[in-house]
């Protein structure tokens, strides 16, 4: 019963674009996320020069942190405003190009080449377009996905990672009977059934 009230809820792409336009982005952490610092070793597992994926990336400053450590970052975000704010807030020059495989999509890439942000829906991506990743930072991503799309999201993510990859997932634990979110409540049992 607990997650029943959230199951049918949908946040549309237009609503997300509007949040960015209105500056309604309480989820953005200017200082970055303390849990990434805490579990950085788990993500990297002693490896360097990794390809790290940021699903539903917003303008997460952790992309800059990891790029500065020598990793190569790929993100996906439907709001072009968010993507542009990321580059301008870090004073990173970038170029912009169409993505031939996805109509209407654009790819924004730092001139240095180590940060590539796809501006499109995550559901438009596949490993043939973006390749596979050694690491994933999933914060505000699975928990932002509409409950009806979780299975599709998880299958895609499983497809986008290499065998020996590390996937850091941040969820929020609360009583869904008392709070309707955001973000969506994703119980541990569901994470087990989605990712195994
Ligand atoms: N991970 C970021 C942002 C979390 S908020 C952070 O930690 O700050 C979720 C983000 O997903 C929003 O910026 C929203 O615009 C974007 N988004 C929502 N649905 C999406 C979709 N289907 N494809 C790509 N991005 C999406």
UniProtKB/TrEMBL annotation:
Question: What does the UniProt keyword field contain?
Answer: Cytoplasm, Methyltransferase, S-adenosyl-L-methionine, Transferase
Which enzyme type, at the first EC level? transferase
The enzyme's E.C. designation: 2.1.1.67
Reactions it catalyzes: S-adenosyl-L-methionine + a thiopurine = S-adenosyl-L-homocysteine + a thiopurine S-methylether
Q: Name one GO cellular component term.
A: cytoplasm
Member of which family?
A: Belongs to the class I-like SAM-binding methyltransferase superfamily. TPMT family.
Annotated protein name in UniProt = thiopurine S-methyltransferase
Native source species: Platysteira castanea
């Amino acid at each position: 019963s607990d997650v029943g009230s959230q199951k049918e809820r949908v946040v549309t792409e237009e609503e997300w674009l509007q949040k960015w336009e209105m500056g309604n982005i309480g989820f953005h952490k200017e200082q970055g996320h303390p849990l990434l610092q805490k579990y950085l070793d788990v993500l990297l597992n002693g490896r360097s020069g990794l390809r790290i994926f940021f699903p539903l990336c917003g303008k997460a400053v952790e992309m800059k942190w990891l790029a500065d450590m020598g990793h190569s970052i790929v993100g996906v975000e439907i709001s072009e405003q968010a993507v542009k704010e990321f580059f301008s807030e870090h004073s990173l020059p970038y170029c912009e190009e169409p993505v031939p495989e996805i109509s209407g999509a654009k790819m924004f890439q730092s001139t240095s080449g180590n940060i590539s942000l796809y501006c499109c829906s995550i559901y438009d991506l596949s490993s043939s377009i973006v390749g596979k990743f050694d690491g994933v930072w999933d914060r505000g991503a699975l928990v932002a996905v509409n409950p009806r799309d979780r299975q599709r999201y998880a299958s895609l993510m499983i497809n986008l990672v290499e065998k020996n990859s590390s996937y850091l997932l941040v969820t929020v634990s609360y009583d869904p009977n008392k709070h309707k979110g955001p973000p969506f409540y994703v119980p541990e049992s569901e994470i087990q059934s989605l990712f195994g």
